[in-house]
Structure formats: structure tokens, C-alpha cells
Specification:
Order of helices and strands: HEEHEHEHEHEHE
Largest sheet: 5 strands, parallel
Strand content: 15-25%
Length: about 190
């Protein structure tokens, strides 16, 4: 019996604390204990609810601003249409997150025949990338070092990469590592 009373009292006390109201215990000799939770005024209840909502809204907003979206766009073909599609996707994603006030990082990763996108001597989209790099710093460009080396051997000349791009050891491995760190992968 004592255990049951303790359970009822602790449950009522917990409910009163959750509601931020005092607990009032009343009893009569040799009868059951009655518990009442004091009723708060409408004004105090509204204030508590407003404060809870405000705190939740601020926390949600802060979390959204801290979250950074991360996207990988792969280009592995020497096709100007595919290259432009990847650049269009990158710009659309960057613009979307800019409009809603959230951070985004986008990496365009090229390998195989797609390296032509970032070659200084053969890129059909070189001028567009130069312009985009000035206006959209959240987009970066990665060139596969393995592909660059293979092209160097095949063409028996240096393979220049545009200044906006960074050479990584392997485009495919770079994509894998980014995915392992939570990046989203898209092949346009």
C-alpha cells in the first residue's frame, strides 16, 4: 500500500512539475490521500507556452543555419552538354540554398574523359567556370590526378588544368571519401 501511494504521489508530482504548477496534498485521517494540482492562471500558462515555443523556434532556426549541405557532382564524359548540365545543377543548388539562407558546398569532380572539362587547353566550358568561380565560391572543381597523368603519357605533353580547379590524387577515391563523410553524390 505504501509503495502504491509513493507511486501515485511521485506521478502527480512529476505531472505538476511538467505543467510548472505546485502540488497540493490533502488528506483526512485514515482515509485515502487526495492530490490536486493547483490550476495556473491563463496568463501564466500562455507565458510558459510562448517561452517554450520561442525557445524551440530559436533552436530550430539555429540548427538549420548551422547545417551545411554538401553535394558532389561527377563528370566523367567529354560531352559539353553533360558538362553544362553539371554546371547548371551546381548553380541551381547554390541559388536554392542561398535563397533560404542555408549553407552549401558543392564539388564538381572530373575523371576519365570528363577531365577535359577542367583542362586549360580543351575545356568547352572554361569561360563559364571562370565566371562562376567569381560569383559562386561555394562551388569548387576537382580534377583527377590519375587521369591527368594518363593523358600526359598518352599525349606526351603536360596537361594543364584551369586555375579554378584543384588536382586530387584520384577522382573516384575523392568521391568515395566525401560520401563516407556524408556528402550527397549525383551524376548528372
Amino acid at each position: 500500500m505504501t509503495g502504491a501511494i509513493a507511486l501515485v504521489v511521485s506521478t502527480a508530482l512529476s505531472a505538476a512539475q511538467d505543467a510548472e504548477r505546485p502540488l497540493i496534498l490533502t488528506s483526512k485521517p485514515h482515509t485515502t490521500i487526495r492530490m490536486q494540482v493547483a490550476k495556473p492562471s491563463a496568463k501564466s500558462t500562455a507565458a510558459v507556452q510562448t517561452n517554450k515555443r520561442s525557445a524551440l523556434a530559436l533552436a530550430t532556426e539555429a540548427a538549420a543555419k548551422k547545417k551545411e549541405h554538401r553535394l558532389i557532382l561527377q563528370v566523367n564524359t567529354n560531352d559539353p552538354a553533360a558538362m553544362n548540365l553539371a554546371l547548371n545543377n551546381a548553380m541551381n543548388v547554390a541559388q536554392y540554398y542561398k535563397e533560404i539562407g542555408e549553407q552549401v558546398k558543392i564539388e564538381v569532380v572530373t575523371f576519365g574523359p570528363g577531365l577535359h572539362m577542367l583542362r586549360d587547353d580543351t575545356s568547352p566550358v572554361k569561360a563559364r567556370i571562370e565566371t562562376m568561380a567569381l560569383s559562386t565560391p561555394e562551388i569548387s572543381y576537382k580534377a583527377c590526378g590519375n587521369t591527368q597523368e594518363n593523358m600526359h603519357k598518352a599525349e606526351n605533353k603536360d596537361i594543364p588544368i584551369i586555375s579554378q580547379a584543384q588536382v586530387v590524387k584520384s577522382g573516384v577515391i575523392h568521391i568515395m571519401q566525401l560520401e563516407e563523410h556524408g556528402w550527397t553524390y549525383v551524376k548528372p
